[in-house]
Amino acid sequence: MLLKLLAIAWLLSAAAMAAFWAWQRRAKSADTITALWPALVGALAILYASQGDGAWARRSAIAWMMGSWGARLAIQGMYTRAAMPPAEAAPRAWWFYQLLGAAAVGASTPALLASLNAAPELSIAELAASAMWVVGFTGETTADRQRLRFYSNPEHKGLTCSTGLWRYSRSIDRLFEALMWCAYAAFGVVALGRYALFARFGF
C-alpha cells in the first residue's frame, strides 16, 4: 500500500508540475508557484487519507490539518497577488518544477505514514500534536490577516508591520508555521514507531 500510494503521488505531482511549467511558459510568469505548491501538498495528504487503510480518526485528522493548511496558503497567495501584485517571477526550467513536485511528495510523507497507521485510537502525542496544530494554524492565519490589512493601507507603504502579533516578532508567522510542521512530524514519528515495534517482534 505504501509503495502504491507513493507511486500515485509521484505521478500526480509530476503531472501537476509539468502542467504548471507549460502554463508559466505561456504566461511568462511563475509568481503563482507560492500558491500552487502548498495546495499540492495538501491535496496529496487528502489522497493518502482517502486511500490509506489506517484508522479513520487519524486519517481524518491529518487530512484536515494538512488539507486546511494547503488550501489556506493557496487562497491567501492568490488573494495577496490580486490585492498587492508582487514583482513578476521569471519562468523557471522544467526540472525545477519537477524538483518542487518531488519536494511536495516528501513534505506530505507524515500524512502518508499516518494514513497507514492502524492503531485504533490517537496517542497522547498525536492529541498533543493536534492541539499544537490548532495553535499554529490560528496564530498564522491571524498574523497573515493582520499583515495584509497593514500593507493594504497606502499610508504604510515602505513601513514594517508591527501591529497585532507582529509587535512580538518580525518572524511570528514562521513560528506558527513551525508549530504546524512539528505537529505533522509527530504524526509521522508515531506511525514510524509503531511500524518499528511491529518489525521488532516479527509482525
Question: Can you offer a commentary on this structure?
Answer:
The two termini are 16 Å apart. The chain contains 7 helices and no strands. It is mostly helical. The longest helix has 29 residues, at 124-152. The chain has one domain (2-200). Helix content is 75%, strand content 0%. Helix 1 (2-27) runs antiparallel to helix 4.
Q: Sheet with the most strands?
A: none
Basic shape: flat
* Nearest-integer average pLDDT: 87
Distance between the termini: 16 Å
Q: Please trace the helix and strand order, writing H or E for each element.
A: HHHHHHH
| Number of DSSP strand runs | 0
Enumerate the spans where pLDDT stays under 50 for 5 or more consecutive residues: 197-203
Discrete helix count: 7
Structural class: mainly alpha
For this entry, give a set of tags:
7 helices; 203 residues; single chain; disordered C terminus; flat; mainly alpha
In short:
The protein has 203 residues and is an all-alpha fold. The protein has helices at 2-27, 33-51, 56-83, 94-107, 109-115, 124-152, 172-200.
SSE blueprint:
Layout: H1 2-27, H2 33-51, H3 56-83, H4 94-107, H5 109-115, H6 124-152, H7 172-200
